[in-house]
Amino acid sequence: MKKLFALTPLLLSLFGCASTDSNSESTAVAGPTTTTAQARIGKAVVSPLTDLNLMPTNIPAVITQALNNPYQLPVNINCEALSEQVQALNAALGPDLDTFSREDKRTNIEKGSAMASDSAVGAIESTISGAVPFRSWLRKLSGAEKKSKELNEAIAAGIVRRSYLKGMGEALKCLPPAAPLNHETVTAQKSE
């Protein structure tokens, strides 16, 4: 336990209090690996508070609506409305699978750096989570386990809702983000 408290100030100072503001543009400046590492360390540092159910988890309204009925027909079924709804879900959930590049264009040095960062962050996460005695029992008794399950269900409903809307957008022949990004079609359109 003493190790955890000794590491916490160091980690907070190294990673700028590990803030994970979803509206910040640090991804464009620092790169996705740095931001992901900061977010993971931030979650690891506050995990004891989460395990004791002392930190509230705010579920965005767009995700809560998806949880109520992920297959509800939208009020307006047109490309613009679908695009707005998909973008709102993207903001809450992060990017969808179709937006990732199929080819990893990073150099070997960048890949190695990402692997080293991932290993270091994993070690910090396991050290901090391992410092809490009887963690699983604490999570159950404090209600954190139930909150975690609710959060996972909400995320799953949001993903289903986004997929459903993109399917509707594809049927209407909308452009992304209202429809899935088809890499072959986009490549063909760019070459024309």
UniProtKB/TrEMBL annotation:
Residues 1-18 form the signal peptide. The keyword Signal applies. It comes from the Bacteria. Keywords: Signal. This is Lipoprotein.
